[in-house]
Specification:
mitochondrion, single chain, mainly alpha
Length: about 70
C-alpha cells in the first residue's frame, strides 16, 4: 500500500513537462518601412560628420547591422 502511494507521488515528477505544441506567434512591427535611398542617406550623413568620435562610430556600425 505504501509503495503504491509513493509511486503515485513520484511518477508525475518523473514524466516531465509535456512540450507545448502548436504555439502561435505573430511578428509585428510598428516602425514604418524605410526605403533603401532614405536609409543610405541617413547613415551617410551620420558617418560623414566631422565631429564623430569612436563610440559613435561603433554604435552606428552596430545599429546599421541591426536594422
Amino acid at each position: 500500500m505504501l509503495r503504491c502511494a509513493a509511486r503515485r507521488l513520484v511518477s508525475p515528477s518523473l514524466r516531465g513537462a509535456s512540450p507545448m505544441l502548436g504555439v502561435a506567434s505573430r511578428k509585428m512591427s510598428s516602425k514604418p518601412k524605410e526605403s533603401d535611398e532614405v536609409f543610405d542617406a541617413r547613415w551617410q550623413t551620420y558617418f560623414s560628420r566631422p565631429d564623430i568620435d569612436a563610440w559613435e562610430l561603433r554604435n552606428g556600425f552596430k545599429r546599421t547591422l541591426r536594422t
